[in-house]
Design goal:
Chain lengths: ~400, ~575
């Protein structure tokens, strides 16, 4: 036990960061991107071969938000075995918090010109702002809410679920039910979140126009920075002693519990942190795409996040980032080039990755693969050989 | 009754001409009435020929107000000869003949107008349009004519027209109709319609009645009915009691009647909610029962379950298309053939999925979940590519269309009734397969102890494949039923997948009866919440309740008991 502590808890932050090869590469790329992409977008002339067009900056920024979302899912799924099929809900809640701030920023420039009420409320004949919209005219408040609301939901939901030992697929199914319930709720006009259409027509953020190249580049940098910070935090958690307990819970929950750990508190902590990260991702996502609507709550979208993680490589953190980029780039490509083929591709990806690449793309690279890397077929054949597995 | 002797006499102009004298001479009103009854054919005529002719001539008055008054007067007595006149006037076929100032109905044949006498209904000559002047009507008159015709329908020889007219009166509740209705009641012979008419009379007598007794007896009649309509009549009466200054005892009686009607209506409302709940429950059950096998018995999270339902629905569509040329539309046969077809197609797809994907993932439920989600995306897109994204039309057979309607507002549609029955049959069938067949025995053995089952010679892999095939086939059968009530589109499965999982998780994994109970209780709870909260909120509440329920009982209503510790 003493050795264990010395080895993992006492190691200084820089120490484990340096040992994390994939993480170093990721952070390096993020820093480079945060400097080079905005620079080439803003400083180089459009004719230059190295000029990054603004749409590309926004697209990359969007991918970065997805990557952060994937990171948050990997933190709980890869390291604690909690397969959340409702993480899109935390993402969307963070997005709505930011969207509410951006709505309030529109002020009297809306179609109906009401200085306080957003357009859709005027349209619905609402006389005054609902109580939960107050405070969202302040940026700091919106940012706090973008983290607090998903965190609170995750805390309450997790507290209930983990305390009563809802695990495995049951947890997956009720997280799905949670996001589905939120989807239905946000579709209602009475909820005061714009119903079907959601929140859109944003004008500016902190006084900077969302259309301008500078703002977009700024948002891109912010996405890079937050992804870097969240990565470091997540890595810090997984490297700490707490992280080791999480991994132990993933691999043998009952055993950890019998050893005397309060499994539910560990799970609750990491689940809440993960939800806050998803909320941040949502808050960064909304100003870059310019809209947030209830569609973000769709259960199908939440399942898609899981495949990003699986494709990249579950339980590696940087793999999740890579997976988010690969799958979303594929989505952008296919939905543009051959829209009919996209679902075939995505569906095939789900099947192929679970069957043939249990460790994802990262796992296929020998330098990053861990010692226990083996195909599911091998595991399966082994189990069949000694007829040990119980369905 | 208002039929005093003179009006009775006035009503018998023709055939009673001879008997009238006799009757008068006898000086006995009763005898007269008796004779009237015997000689009824023309008793409906309220006007004498001359009167009818005179009053019809007034229709040509210049003032529209006067015309309306005339129309109302003509209609008020319920003379069957009036209806064609007013009808002709409405259609613009009523003219005044310039030669003798007679009103005639004229129809154009070529260039010639044929005149029809309004009293006798016979042809009385023809002329060109020059000799006729049309009786002009405007929109106000059209309205009045339509109203008048509606009241005259009360006296139509056709029972259906009469009952429609009664319903119309019941809806309108215009006190002015009361005298007319009373006369219709006098003459009505059909028992059912008579009851309706008396009810209609009571609804009007309530407000328009002149004495306390009249009102009280009206309330008596109303109190025995159980329809939303009567509740509206009574509550309206009670609400306006103060303003109108009705007698206190009448108001009290009305209040009592209202309460008793409301009491019975709310019972019916509850029955209706239960029925709708069972109906929704049977749909949920059908959607979930296949999942109860794949998830409940095998422990396989089959996210492609919804797509199996979709495949079943598309099979139904295909069967209908294939048999469309042979069978008449609306034939039950294509649906009957679809059931085994859908079972085989979806079952075969299930076996293929099990052998090619799922068998490598046993014991890894989360991976299974992801892989089957992938399968579901591929299947959805495949169907979309083959059939297109639009909804396909599956026609309902005759025995499934239509409904049983109760006057209390409860409507039982046949398709829902059949689906309830069908779901029961399906569940009973599965229970029988599990309980009584060799395959069911092997299946249970493999579920309980795979190694032991293998040791005694059961081919576990084979049983796995067939079990998954059975679950998928059942989903296909569910698709046949669901094709009757929802859109057959590539998204069909998605609509049901979350609900199905909720049902299975709620009911408890590995227990068929848990699934049955889960489906029906979710359905009923949902439908009971709906009137209070609206459909969407009700669904949200049910989902939240389920999430909370799973905290209490993480393994559902009926958990398998045992010492197994997972992981």
């Amino acid at each position: 036990m003493t050795d264990y502590r010395q080895k993992y808890q006492m190691t200084p932050v820089i120490g484990w960061l340096l040992k994390d090869r994939g993480g170093m590469i990721l952070l390096g790329i993020l820093i480079a991107a945060a400097i080079l992409v905005p620079a080439s977008n803003l400083l180089l002339p459009e004719s230059s071969a190295f000029h990054v067009p603004t749409w590309m900056v926004s697209l990359l920024g969007k991918y970065l938000c997805y990557a952060l979302l994937a990171l948050s899912v990997d933190l709980i799924w890869g390291f604690c075995g909690i397969l959340s099929l409702g993480h899109g809900a935390f993402f969307a809640l963070g997005g709505y918090a930011m969207g509410m701030y951006l709505m309030r920023q529109i002020g009297d420039r809306g179609v109906y010109g009401d200085p306080i009420l957003p357009d859709f409320m005027v349209f619905l004949n609402w006389q005054e702002l609902p109580w939960y919209w107050h405070g969202f005219d302040m940026f700091w408040f919106a940012i706090v809410m973008a983290m607090f609301v998903p965190g609170l939901l995750a805390f309450v939901f997790g507290f209930l679920a983990f305390r009563s030992r809802v695990t495995g697929v049951y947890l997956s199914i009720i997280t799905q039910a949670m996001t589905y319930a939120l989807l239905l709720a946000f579709f209602r006009n009475d909820m005061g979140f714009g119903g079907n259409n959601g929140l859109t027509d944003f004008k500016d953020l902190l006084g900077y126009s969302l259309q301008s190249d500078g703002t977009r580049a700024g948002l891109f940098v912010a996405s890079c920075v937050f992804l870097g910070i969240c990565y470091t935090v997540a890595r810090g958690i997984t490297q700490s002693r707490l992280g080791k307990v999480l991994i132990a819970i993933r691999d043998a929950e009952s055993r950890v519990r019998f050893t005397g750990y309060r499994v539910e508190y560990y799970k609750l902590f990491v689940f809440t942190v993960s939800a806050v990260m998803a909320g941040i991702a949502g808050a960064l996502y909304v100003p870059q795409v310019g809209i947030i609507n209830p569609g973000e709550f769709a259960p199908a979208l939440s399942i898609e996040i899981v495949i990003w993680v699986a494709v990249g490589g579950r339980g590696t953190l940087y793999g999740a980032v890579l997976g988010a980029f690969i799958v979303n780039y594929a989505k952008t490509f296919f939905t543009g080039a051959m829209p009919d083929f996209w679902l075939f591709f995505l569906g095939g990806l789900f099947i192929a990755v679970t069957l043939f690449l249990p460790k994802g793309v990262i796992g296929a690279v020998p330098a990053f693969g861990s010692a226990d890397r083996q195909s599911l077929f091998t595991t399966w054949r082994k189990r069949r050989a000694n007829e040990g597995g119980k369905a | 009754m208002r039929n005093d002797m003179f009006s009775v006499l006035r009503r018998s102009p023709f055939s009673l001409a001879k008997t009238r004298d006799v009757a008068l001479r006898l000086g006995a009103v009763i005898a007269c009435l008796a004779l009237l009854v015997i000689a009824t054919p023309n008793s409906a005529q309220a006007f004498s020929d001359e009167e009818l002719r005179n009053i019809a001539e007034q229709l040509n008055d210049k003032s529209a107000t006067k015309k309306v008054a005339v129309i109302e007067e003509m209609a008020a007595d319920g003379d069957p000869r009036v209806a064609p006149i007013l009808k002709a006037m409405l259609d613009g076929d009523l003219y005044v003949r310039d030669s003798d100032e007679h009103v005639v109905i004229a129809t154009k044949k070529g260039k010639v107008f044929t005149h029809i006498d309004i009293v006798s209904g016979e042809e009385v000559g023809e002329s060109s349009s020059k000799e006729l002047s049309k009786i002009k009507i405007n929109n106000r008159l059209r309205g009045a004519l339509r109203d008048a015709l509606a009241t005259l329908n009360l006296f139509s020889p056709d029972l259906n027209i009469r009952s429609a007219a009664v319903e119309q009166i019941m809806d309108a509740r215009d006190p002015a109709m009361l005298p007319l209705l009373l006369r219709a009641i006098d003459r009505e012979e059909d028992e059912t319609l008579l009851a309706r008419m008396e009810l209609a009379q009571a609804t009007m007598a309530l407000a328009a009645g002149e004495t306390t007794e009249e009102r009280l007896s009206a309330i008596d009649v109303l109190a025995s009915e159980t329809t939303p309509q009567i509740r509206a009549v009574l509550s309206q009466f009670v609400a306006s009691a103060e303003a109108e200054g009705y007698e206190p005892e009448v108001v009290a009686a009305a209040q009592d009647a209202l309460e008793s009607v409301e009491g019975r209506l709310s019972t019916w409302q509850t029955i209706g909610d239960v029925y709708r709940g069972i109906s929704l429950g049977s749909v949920l059950l059908l959607a979930a029962v296949g999942l109860a096998i794949t998830f409940g018995v095998m422990g396989v999270i089959n996210m492609a379950h919804g797509e199996m339902i979709m495949i079943g629905a598309y099979t139904t569509f295909m069967v209908q298309q294939a048999l469309g040329s042979i069978l008449p539309s609306g034939s039950a046969w294509s649906l009957v053939i679809s059931v085994p077809a859908a079972f085989l197609v979806a079952g075969a797809v299930g076996v293929v999925i099990e052998r090619s994907v799922i068998r490598f993932l046993y014991g890894r439920p989360l991976e299974t979940l992801l892989a089957t989600w992938g399968v579901s995306l591929v299947l959805q897109q495949a169907i979309r590519t083959i059939f297109g994204a639009t909804n396909q039309q599956v026609t309902a057979p005759d025995f499934m269309s239509g409904a049983i309607e109760f006057s209390t507002g409860l409507v039982l549609t046949y398709n829902r009734l059949w689906i309830i029955l069908f779901s029961i049959i399906v569940v009973a069938g599965i229970a029988a397969v599990l309980r009584y067949t060799a395959f069911g025995l092997q299946m249970r053995a493999v579920t309980q102890n795979r190694r032991m089952a293998g040791s005694v010679g059961i081919r576990t892999g084979y049983v796995d494949a067939l079990t998954f095939g059975l679950g998928s086939g059942i989903a296909g059968i569910a698709g046949v039923a669901l094709s009757q009530i929802s859109n057959v589109s590539p998204n069909l499965g998605q609509t049901y997948i979350i609900d199905s999982f909720m049902v299975v998780v709620f009911g408890g994994v590995g227990n068929l009866w848990g699934t049955v109970l889960g489906a029906f209780s979710l359905g009923i709870v949902n439908k009971f919440l709906e009137p209070m909260a609206g459909a969407v909120l009700a669904k949200i509440f049910v989902l939240i309740a389920l999430i909370l329920f799973i905290q209490k009982r993480p393994k559902g209503l009926f958990a398998l008991k045992g010492r197994a510790v997972e992981a």
